[in-house]
Amino acid sequence: MNIQHDKEQLTKQLLDWYKQNARVLPWREKATPYRVWVSEIMLQQTRVEAVKPYFERFIATIPDIPTLANTEDEVLAKLWEGLGYYRRVYNMKKCAQVCVEKHGGKLPNTYAELLELPGIGAYTAGAIASIAFGECVAAVDGNVLRVFSRVLVLEEDILKESVKRQYAKIVQMYIPKHESSAFNQALMELGATICVPNAAPRCNICPIADNCKGYQCGKAHYLPNKAAKKTRRIEKKTICVLRYKDKFHVRQRASQGLLAGLYEFDWLEGYQSKKAVSEYYKMYVVKNIRKLPDAKHVFSHIEWHMKGYLVEVEMPCEEGVWCTLEELKASYAIPTAYKAYKDALEKE
């Protein structure tokens, strides 16, 4: 089999395709360093369509780095509510504070300096440096790893950090000196829209198929290779939404660990019966208990399997916060894990 691969031709094909097919995205319309940074952090493990409204709202509320550096954590959590991985936005604040202290309230303009900032890794630094500052440097995310594993039939485990560094060196050799922004975005766009995951690349409409070794030898659908994920630990919980008159009870989680600093409904370990829940909260004089929907939420390493109850009480507990549904929606960041229960309250 005569397998074709012309590096220069592939680069030209990719850039020509991107110029004609790039999606219109809010962070691309005005690619300032700050906007690129915010978008890249939000897009980590989150779909583009889901990010759009969050990005617009975040930028409108926090338009620059000095503002971000001085924004309260609870405001940040509320703006981030529903995106998940809240540590991202807390690290952004730390990064902003360093930028105010050391860089005049702006992001530094080189890959090397960006890499020194908290919460900014190799990919994010590469994206900001190339897209916002035009530095000729690779930005290798999951999309790029997938594209190049297929283009060059690279069969190493792409989850290994050593392999990611190897890919960055390879991609670097393809970047046109004065078109790093377009090239990196084109690669990401190709991976997001055509060279998609889960053995489903759309090779029949791929602009670089005739320079893709994986397509030509029939291996594209089998790549990339990833080590099998560890089995998630399952935690069973009984969510107890306490209600006193027109107010609901929430409490703030610890400042460290999973869902740090966010607000949540009360819960008990394991699956508890209505009778057990009534007994647990008897000190608050339980007036009525009603079943709420079952729910499941998947984190990277654990799964919460939840049963729920709405527990109406005649005496409010002193700990935590009692708030109306409107206050809850406006001021308290509730993790997506509790979405089924928050939604149930809106139907009351």
Explained architecture:
The protein is an alpha+beta fold and 348 residues long. The chain has 2 domains: 7-222, Endonuclease III, domain 1 (Orthogonal Bundle), CATH 1.10.340.30; 233-346, Alpha-Beta Complex (Nucleoside Triphosphate Pyrophosphohydrolase). The protein has helices at residues 7-21, 26-29, 33-43, 48-61, 65-69, 73-80, 87-102, 111-114, 122-131, 142-151, 161-172, 180-193, 213-217, 274-280, 325-331, 339-346, and strands at residues 233-244, 247-252, 263-264, 266-269, 286-298, 302-313, 321-323. Strands 1, 2, 3, 4, 5, 6 and 7 form a 7-stranded mixed sheet that branches. A hairpin with a 3-residue loop joins β5 (286-298) and β6. The protein is elongated. The chain starts with 6 loop residues before the first helix and ends with a helix.
